[in-house]
Design goal:
The protein has 4 helices and 9 strands. It has about 200 residues and is of the alpha+beta class. It is rod-shaped, with a radius of gyration of 50 Å.
């Protein structure tokens, strides 16, 4: 009876020898992947198992409570890359990966990972870049319009000032006409003087 008890303990120990090393509480998974499941084992462990994703903490992200990821895993591989479920990777916290006997015995647990998070990853950044580019273009267009408006306003102000003060627009025109008229008057006075002298001589 004692030997039977130790045999049961030995079987239990061998069954629990599988240990999940990744994912872990410090290294979770992402929706972009690739997500790696790794483990350690001893020679007395089963040669294969089924990998199951479970979440008993936040069942809203995994309504079924558990999802078979890989139905038949070769235990001697020690690491595999896991593809997402048919509905894609859920996002949340409190996930675990269970190593169970097979797809028909999901409650026969061989090993269980620590709780880990699955986070959203791989979202494009071109949207913010596009938004930044759009903002720059808008700012440039606004700046151009402001400059054009300022130039137009300056031109209009200059035209108005010239209209109100005509002398400022052509400061050299008046002296030119005055200087031109003075020689004509001198010539006329000289001609009249000559005629007067000629009349006096003939008299």
């Amino acid at each position: 009876m004692v030997s039977a008890f130790f045999s049961v303990l030995a079987l239990a120990a061998s069954a629990a020898a599988y240990q999940v090393t990744s994912p872990s509480s410090s290294q979770g998974w992402t929706t972009a992947g690739p997500n790696v499941l790794s483990w350690s084992r001893v020679n007395t462990d089963r040669l294969n198992f089924t990998a199951v994703l479970s979440n008993q903490v936040d069942q809203g992200v995994l309504p079924s409570g558990q999802e078979v990821l890989v139905a038949l895993v070769n235990g001697t591989d020690n690491s595999i890359t896991v593809s997402p479920p048919s509905a894609g990777w859920p996002v949340g916290y409190g996930f675990r990966v269970n190593l169970v006997q097979d797809a028909q015995n999901l409650n026969t647990l061989l090993a269980q990972s620590d709780q880990f998070n699955i986070t959203e990853n791989g979202t494009p950044t071109s949207t913010s870049s596009s938004a930044s580019s759009t903002g720059s273009s808008t700012a440039s267009a606004s700046s151009g319009k402001s400059s054009a408006s300022a130039t137009s306003t300056g031109s209009s102000s200059g035209s108005s000032s010239d209209a109100l003060n005509p002398s400022s627009s052509a400061p050299d025109s008046a002296p030119t006409h005055t200087n031109a008229a003075m020689p004509s008057l001198g010539m006329q006075s000289g001609f009249i003087g000559v005629l007067a002298l000629l009349g006096a001589f003939l008299a």
